[in-house]
Amino acid sequence: MQLKNKVAFITGAGAGIGQAISLLFALEGAAVTLFDINQTYLDETAKIIHGFGTDFLSICGSVTSSSDISSAIQATEQAFGGLDILIANAGVAMRGSVVDMSEADWNRVLDINLGGVFRVSKYGIPCLLKRGGGSIINLASTQSFRGYPGWAGYAASKGAIVALTRQVAMEYSKQRIRCNAIAPGAVDTPMNAGVFGSAPDPAAERQKWADATPLGRLGIGEDIARAALYLASDDSSWVTGTCMVVDGGQLAG
Ligand SMILES: NC(=O)c1ccc[n+]([C@@H]2O[C@H](COP(=O)([O-])OP(=O)(O)OC[C@H]3O[C@@H](n4cnc5c(N)ncnc54)[C@H](O)[C@@H]3O)[C@@H](O)[C@H]2O)c1
Domain locations in the chain? Predict the structure, then answer.
């Protein structure tokens, strides 16, 4: 019960990595607010957590909306008496090189992936300050550090998340708010099911990604959730401003 008496706000909590983090944090004793744009995904995650018997809220909204984020954070404080952990996880994968992608797609991927991280910190940090500190975890990517042709907007958003993470860490270290990022490699989630599905042979594409990972398999949500648990808990009390790479060895290879 590493997160007993802690309260966590998690975006993109309905599926994939966000769902895995939500389930692990609930099992570790945290009260969690599940925030997602997809009500069906939210209901699936809520059903599992309901079975654990722990406190949770389920709120449908978009990370692109300041009012959705701020009212969900307010509801979290009201329901659980405070907020300790922010997980800015919601994101979308959009293909396109600089020339190919439309300006509308560029704006959209930046608004969801980077704007979502900004809004979670903007509206969540005042609550963490009231508790005398807290932990913020932002989802970056191996694409924050390495170029893969055809992902210009996504990579730009993920690189900026690492810079914003450092920035928030420096701005709030004196107030005992830690801010770190996690850079996952290829994880088996609905996001990547979509990426594989767009290839001519989805099964072969999936296998290709697994083979390109030195540890020989795709990640699972729990691989990332375990890193998030470390960064959220007091085990990482001297860790801030960093980005933890959890990628099966992809960047080292
Ligand atoms: N899966 C990977 O291989 C991988 C690798 C590196 C980084 N990441 C990052 O990890 C995070 C989670 O990825 P995933 O693979 O679990 O994605 P996913 O698509 O499987 O799940 C994302 C969740 O976010 C929700 N969401 C999407 N747009 C939203 C919005 N505007 N407002 C609120 N919720 C929204 C979706 O409904 C979904 O439940 C993302 O930021 C992604 O970029 C994933």
Answer: 7-189+221-246
Question: For a substitution probing ligand 1, which of 92, 138, 213 has the most ligand atoms within 8 Å of its CB?
Answer: 92
Ligand 1 site, residue 64, Cβ cutoff 6 A: yes
What is the model's pTM?
0.98
Q: How many Å apart are CA 8 and CA 179, to the nearest integer?
A: 14
Q: Burial, 30: exposed, middle or buried (Cβ in 10 Å; 0-12, 13-18, 19+)?
A: buried
Integer Cα distance of 120 and 45 in angstroms: 21
Average model confidence (pLDDT) across the chain: 98
Active-site residue, selected from the candidate residues 148, 154, 172, 230: 154
Tens-place pLDDT, residues 210-233: 999 999 999 999 999 999 999 999
Task: Please tell me the CATH superfamily of domain 7-189+221-246, with its number.
Answer: NAD(P)-binding Rossmann-like Domain (3.40.50.720)
Find tokens 């701005």 and name the residue: 171
